[in-house]
Amino acid sequence: MRRPLIAGNWKMNLNRADAVALAKGLADADTSVDCDILVCPSNVYLDAVSNAISGSGISIGAQDVYFEASGAFTGETSTSMIADVGCTYVILGHSERRHVIGECDMLINKKVVSALAAGLTPVLCVGETLEDREAGNTQKVVESQFDGSLAGLTEDQIRKTVIAYEPVWAIGTGKTASPEQAQEVHADLRKLLADRYNSETSETVRILYGGSVKPANAADLMSQADIDGALVGGASLKADSFAAIINAAGVAAA
Ligand code: PGA
Fold first, then answer.
1. Is 94 a catalytic residue?
2. 125 CA: nearest ligand 1 atom
3. 72 alpha carbon to ligand 1 midpoint, in Å?
4. How far is it, in rounded angstroms, from Cα 75 to Cα 68?
5. What digits encode the pLDDT tens for the residues 12-60?
6. What percentage of residues in the chain have a pLDDT greater than 90?
7. Where are the strands (E) in the chain, listed by range?
8. Architecture of domain 5-253 in CATH?
């Protein structure tokens, strides 16, 4: 069975004191459910948050990473640097990096490969814009991001990868995909995994949903057959709402 993963993407929010307080609040929260918990603060607070969650069982990840090992890449951070401050995960290809910063599948693919080589778990995001959805292109867009961003991965590597379906129109907008809309794309992704690899691999890979996940909609989303957890933005910035989402996932998985 796939163990649920609830990941908090803190984006470019919080200061050092607030990030540490949130991490400690989560470490102390009553989340005695059987699922993996991940927080992804800004790079500059990785070390501080890593210390704050030490011993709690909560994992820490970065929101992005560069693919080169070291050298003259001003402003970038390498996989070994984030691993050095405790990261075991890294979010890659988030829609804000694709659409605001302008990252393409080829670059994201290099990052995925480099993260896996460093022993990190990539959380690879895919998702269509509203325009794509309205034009009936959701499946096509998601398939092309899947093939481009995950190109060349071996069966062993894809099994170590987490996929996050995040419809761009649902991110930070308060508009959530309905559980049925989300499930439809998750099922398509699982079919792609079976097609490009095999059915056993497809049943192994965790596929998270992201886009305005809140305590009120988490249980319904998470009870869908192919939704294995959530990538949460806004609602991960408060310990009580993130803990409520974690507990909803635990209930749905039980
Ligand atoms: P949101 O963000 O929960 O605020 O919609 C999700 C994400 O971007 O990962």
1. yes
2. 9
3. 32
4. 12
5. 999 999 999 999 999 999 877 789 999 999 999 999 999 999 999 999 9
6. 93
7. 5-9, 36-40, 59-62, 89-92, 121-126, 162-165, 207-210, 229-232
8. Alpha-Beta Barrel (3.20)
